[in-house]
Amino acid sequence: MHSAQRAALERLIAIARSDTGQSRRVAGFLLAWWNAPECGGFDLTDLWAVDRSIAADMLTVFALLIECRDYPDGLGYRKQFEAIVRFWRSGLNAHE
After folding, report:
1. Using CA atoms, how far apart are residues 3 and 46, in angstroms rounded to an integer?
2. Residue 2, C-beta contacts closer than 8 angstroms, at least 6 positions apart
3. Are 61 and 26 in contact (CB under 8 A)?
4. Which of 54, 57, 67, 96 supports an S-S bond with 50, CB 3.0-4.6 Å?
5. What's the structural domain count of the chain?
């Protein structure tokens, strides 16, 4: 992961950990990567509901997924994603 990808991912993680409409959409995007069957998929039209800079970060992370072919925990972000699961999908076990 290069520095621009890491920065985009970390900005999205920070956004997903707050409680706004944009945060909900960013969390949905990230959690679809983490575990889509359990956490839900991502509606591509949600890109229309976030600021362009956030959408650009989502595109950067999407490109990262193509390159890295790994889950967030494989990239060292397990704790951050578990926190997002607890916040947005409180009925799920973040460890599964």
Report:
1. 26
2. none
3. no
4. 54
5. 1
